[in-house]
Amino acid sequence: MPPFIHISYDRAIDSSYDISQMLQAAENAAKRVEKQEQPSAKGWAEIPEAQMTPELKADLLLIKNRNVIDPKRHYKSTGWGKDLPTHVQYANVIEPASRYYSKSSKASRKGTLMGEFVASGKNEYVSGKAAELTREGAARRSHRRGGKRAGKGKK
Predict the structure, then answer these.
(1) Distance (Å) of CA 152 to CA 1, 105, 134, 149
(2) What number of CA atoms fall less than 13 Å from residue 85's CA on the CB side?
(3) pTM of the predicted model as reported, rounded to 2 decimal places
């Protein structure tokens, strides 16, 4: 008789040991095994759920809002809705030897998409629009408060 069955048998014979406890322990063990066997990303080619770091979140938001970066380019919708995807992976692009002289240097590459975007200088349109909206908002708030009396409380 295998040792684990022998131990269980001895416990079952012992009158002080409750059988219901043993059955409950067996059910809990079966549930743990079921949880481990379930695939984490069924239908996602077994891509595991990524831990959402601030860098990953910034990159995903950049991809989601890429149509705001350049108004003259039109992108197909990501289809993400309001939520960001949870099953994502980073990859390194390995370029062929024929592109040795035309590829970007290691110094110009950044660790994240957001880093590359900021370093590329393509954020001029976004920065200008943000500044314009800030000015318009400040003007609207000043107008609502009464112009010269801005900052004073109501009487």
Answers:
(1) 89, 56, 21, 6
(2) 15
(3) 0.51
